[in-house]
Amino acid sequence: MRGRNFCFITTPIFYVNAAPHIGHLYSAVIADAYHRLKRLDGYGHTIFSTGTDEHGTKIQDAAKKNKQTLKDYCDGMSLCYRTTFEKFNVGFTDYIRTTDERHKKAVHHFWDCIKSKGHIYQGKYAGWYCISEEAFLSEGQLTEKPGPDGKLQKVSAETGHPVEWTEEENFMFRLSSFQNDLLYWLKDDHIVQPLKFHKQLVSWIQDDSLMQDISISRSKERVHWGIPVPDNSDQTIYVWLEALVNYLSVVGYPDNQFQRFWPPDVQVIGKDILKFHGIYWPAFLMAAGLDPPRTLFCHSHWTVNQEKMSKSKNNIVDPNDMLQTYGSNGFRYFLLREGTPHSDANFSATKVKNILNSELADSLGNLLNRCCSHAVNPKQIFPLYNQDSFAKYCESDAKKLISHLTSLPDAVKQHFEAFNFYKGIDAIIASIHEANKFFEYQKPWVLAKSSATSDHLEIVLHVTMETLRVCGILLQPIVPELSNILLSKLNIPSSQRMWCHIKPLSWEQAGERHLFSISEAPAVLYQRMQKK
Ligand code: ME8
């Protein structure tokens, strides 16, 4: 049985045939932000898994090309993904590799389970096979384009990768018998988010040609790098079936404990793998008598100059370059600020710089810096709320700001829970803009010059710093390190940074707060980038 404060979140496991790019990082950062949101909301038992997909022909070929043994190659690449994610504060609780022994055990058990329930049979399979997608494709999924020799060749219509005619004796999975169960599962139209992808998935499942039984093994001769079919070492388990089981491996399947976290609450995926996660995966689970995921969050892609990132176009954006230029939290901010789940987002260095300069450096950072400066805040305090001063000096000017702030926490939470991080960030930044206007209008640097105006000064500082405190707490899922700098500068103890500490706003609860000094640490939140 699931406890109330349990949560299980996953990312895809990434192919090690190439180094990570910003698209991979984007999936990981979305899942991380959601995980942090849950932790801040009091979820005490969480699993957040990511990792690498290391079997199959693509990986065999990549290791060969790199003149490395398969093991060395996979170890190196898997570590590269892991360290990249770590550098960007992706706080996964488990990192699974499909070459882990625990995974092999889970896959074998899963195979035996669906076989014993009669969902696997042996059959001859003949069809067009796409190595890059590791899948047989139907005629409707193919098109033709000139090959390297100029002759027309059949390719996958979706990805443009070549296919080859293949005939094999394989194990087959009775996918066709799950059509109705899948449609029933999708009756709740919140299962796949955003709705656009939910609708797309339903229409695929209604299409009989996509719901044919599928081959779930390959001859060992062709794919030797993989997990063998139990009791039949001539066949290797189809990489997609094997890879999907990683989500069970991380919760300790088949040991009974895994039920504590099953089914996953949120599985973050890109739109390219919706078919595998929205059709095959739930069908495999239903075949094993297990619940399908509660939510599939399917995001769109990053493009560069409106084009797909690819090695051949030489336009891959490397997260490590982003780290050097924008810092880990700067780039996380950009990804979640500009990435929209429902449609592709375009990467451009100018856009990153403009957003970070204007929002993190000029609006947020500058406000923190100003209200902590000695010229404006000579006592170096986060002053207490004072009802009389508020009514006398600020009430009318701060109206808009306070109405913003009062509704902000709930609005942000709703947006973040719906994976609309960009909308949540937009609301936070709008409050910061309001606070900047209020600060400018009140001119605290003038008030600081005379002790006669100290009550007025303190209430202006209080309202501004309170805005920063609320926004700092709300930004933790997006930019954990920057939020920490901000909240630490204001001297907000770590124990007071949970979602439940945001409200009620302190100006309604003056008695509960204590006057405290701000920290002496420098208040530079984000260094403005200059023109090159
Ligand atoms: O498909 N923009 O791995 P993969 C945004 N191993 N996200 C992108 C992206 C882009 N341009 N390109 C890739 C696989 N992604 C399988 C998954 S899961 C059991 C097995 C992200 O290395 C996105 O999440 O090709 C996409 O689904 C994933 O990386 C594919 O990574």
Automatic annotation (TrEMBL):
Q: What is its EC number?
A: 6.1.1.10
Q: What reaction is this protein's catalytic activity?
A: tRNA(Met) + L-methionine + ATP = L-methionyl-tRNA(Met) + AMP + diphosphate
Q: Which GO terms describe its cellular component?
A: mitochondrion
Per UniProt, the keywords (alphabetical) are: Aminoacyl-tRNA synthetase, ATP-binding, Ligase, Nucleotide-binding, Protein biosynthesis
Name all Methionyl-tRNA synthetase anticodon-binding domain ranges: 397-518
Q: Which GO terms describe its biological process?
A: methionyl-tRNA aminoacylation
Instruction: Please give the Pfam families that the UniProt record associates with this protein.
Output: Anticodon_3, tRNA-synt_1g
If you read the UniProt record, what top EC class would you report for this enzyme, in one word?
Answer: ligase
Record-linked InterPro entries: Anticodon_Met (IPR041872), Met-tRNA_synth (IPR014758), Met-tRNA_synth_2 (IPR023457), Methionyl/Leucyl_tRNA_Synth (IPR015413), MetRS_core (IPR033911), Rossmann-like_a/b/a_fold (IPR014729), tRNAsynth_Ia_anticodon-bd (IPR009080)
GO molecular function annotation: ATP binding; methionine-tRNA ligase activity
- Record domain Methionyl/Leucyl tRNA synthetase: where: 8-371
Cross-referenced NCBIfam families: metG
Family per record: Belongs to the class-I aminoacyl-tRNA synthetase family.
- What name does UniProt use for this protein? Methionine--tRNA ligase, mitochondrial
Q: Which lineage ranks, top first, belong to the organism behind this chain?
A: Eukaryota, Metazoa, Ecdysozoa, Arthropoda, Hexapoda
